[in-house]
């Protein structure tokens, strides 16, 4: 009898980011300014219910700590050497531990990636970002935190799946699929 070895199920990763027309996601790394539309917040909250866990950077986690403590959250940080659990939150250093192995051991099938720029870049660089939802709010910041922060230039190709206008003010929701 010839048995085929089943490979472990793939983890599906979807990033969510809200940005200004000029591609900024906040005024600064420590900014707690709430500038996104209520329509974007409603879409975002409704979407998160579909995921086993969320992944954020330390600054993003601090800004939304109260809400994120209520769900399975993985916080990327350089301040730990091995995964550290605190309630439903795991502080994780992807430079010191194998992230893919960790999420498979947790039996996570779907992850929501919530930023910031270095976290988005980690998923791009490791080719584990499958979809991207970008909300474009009708603002120009001229300075601030960019959506993505890579250490060197690299082009990643995405395919536009849909565009939805969220409100009369001009907020747009773009849905992309990774195409490299």
From TrEMBL:
One of its GO terms (molecular function) is dihydrofolate reductase activity. InterPro entries: DHFR-like_dom_sf, DHFR_dom, Riboflavin_Biosynth_HTPR. Residues 31-135 form the DHFR domain. GO terms for biological process: tetrahydrofolate biosynthetic process. PANTHER family: 2,5-DIAMINO-6-RIBOSYLAMINO-4(3H)-PYRIMIDINONE 5'-PHOSPHATE REDUCTASE (PTHR38011:SF11), DIHYDROFOLATE REDUCTASE FAMILY PROTEIN (AFU_ORTHOLOGUE AFUA_8G06820) (PTHR38011). This is DHFR domain-containing protein. It comes from Candidatus Nomurabacteria bacterium RIFCSPHIGHO2_02_FULL_42_19. The lineage of its organism: Bacteria, Candidatus Nomuraibacteriota.
